[in-house]
Amino acid sequence: MKGISRKLFSILSIIMLLLLAACGGNNTGSETNTNEGSSNKDGVVSAKFGVIAYLTGAGAAYGEAITNGLKLAQKDINALGEVNIELVIEDSAGKADQALNASQKIMSDDSITAIIGPTLSTEIFAVAPEADLNGIPIMGTSTTVDGIPEIGDYVFRNAVPESLAIPAAIEKAVERTGAKKVALIYGNDDALTKGGFDVMERTVKEMGLEITTIETYQDGQSDYNAQLTKIKNTNPDLILASALYNEGAVIMDQARKMGIDIPFVGGNGFNSPQAIEIAGDAANGLIVATPYFGESTDPKIVKFNEDYEAEFGKKPDQFAAQAYDGLFIYADALKRAGSADREAFREALAETKDLEGILGKFSFDEVGDVIMNVTVLEIKDGKFIEFE
To answer: Quick one: which of 276, 209, 281, 278 has its CA closest to 239?
Structure first.
């Protein structure tokens, strides 16, 4: 019996070894532990990137644009054949706790090299410290509040920060209108809108402008008449509004109905075609700064717009464009790293310099924040045009 048992054990051992060898031989980069890195038979480095996006809820247009931009970039990158990218997409619903849960699911998968997202600054302040602690690179393509890249060595963004975009928009607006007095309104329960307000307040004080009133609102509010009445009574020359497009559009609509016809200056959250769809003619006069001007004649922008519309049946916005370039930044780092290893990838990502994207040249500074130029736009006759 013992001899039979030994023979049976030997046979089973051989079978197990053959099975393990077969499984190992079929691994690709998207299936292999990222800490070891991977490439396919042709020497093309493969990697999986986790995506956390705001796909359901009031601000879902942001997440839809971002994931569409990423999917288009994935298609274009993989077609080039230099690297191969797989996306693992999770919905955050615009909530910090759900974004954190999604990130923990992604981070527990050792085959995922890095994270893109979440969509909102409130979310990334919850997620980024965990990613940094776990040694997984994370990059925001739409998170613009001051202090995000400073969270840690593994935290980056290619979104233009409010500290760059808002002052450019305010300065242009004041230059044209000769404004001396401004009123401010912002959402006080969201990191993006609160951060945008901080930049607005700091900028107007540095410019020596008078603040006639500061009004606040809460996420999801629908009636702004009390705040707008106070603003109207102070007779400002400009209204600076730090708002997401859904609240911001309603604020503009109610302001115009009250007879307030002065220009609005908004932050990054306001920069969406959805603001025009919701507010209609009331959106005219909104001034924002952005790296993306959809009506540009730049051949790169024209091609991106055409490809995006052909793929998704609608025009792209700033958030789609930044996500598209964001995945190309990741692809470039992956190619230079030569491996899907998280640490090698992070080091290559940090060294990104003068990478040419559809929005211009990208570099990261010493803390992982983006260095690039912005364009000031306004809404006129129902569309964004370059501010003159």
So the answer is: 209
**Full pLDDT tens readout for the chain, 388 residues:** 334 333 343 434 433 333 333 443 333 233 333 333 455 546 799 999 999 999 999 899 999 999 999 999 999 999 999 999 999 999 999 999 999 999 999 999 999 999 999 999 999 999 999 999 999 999 999 999 989 999 999 999 999 998 999 999 999 999 999 999 999 999 998 888 999 999 999 999 999 999 999 999 998 889 999 999 999 999 999 999 999 888 999 999 999 999 999 999 998 778 778 889 999 999 999 999 988 898 899 999 999 999 999 999 999 999 999 999 999 999 999 999 999 999 999 999 999 999 999 999 999 999 999 999 889 999 999 988 999 8
Question: Could you tell me the CATH number of the domain that includes residue 49?
Answer: 3.40.50.2300
Tell me the C-alpha distance between 325 and 378, whole Å: 23
Which pTM does this prediction carry? 0.80
- Of 239, 257, 290, which residue is a domain's last? 290
Q: Are strands 155-157 and 360-364 parallel, antiparallel or unpaired?
A: unpaired
User: Residue type for 276, please?
Assistant: I
Q: What is the DSSP string of 138-185?
A: EEESS--STTSGGG-TTEEE-SPPHHHHHHHHHHHHHHHH---EEEEE
Specify the 3-state DSSP secondary structure of 87. Answer: strand
CA pair distance 51, 345, nearest whole angstrom: 16
Do 154 and 169 have their domain in common?
no
Is the domain of 114 the same as that of 174? no
Amino acid code (one letter) for 371: I
Query: Residue 323 sits in which domain range?
Result: 45-160+298-373
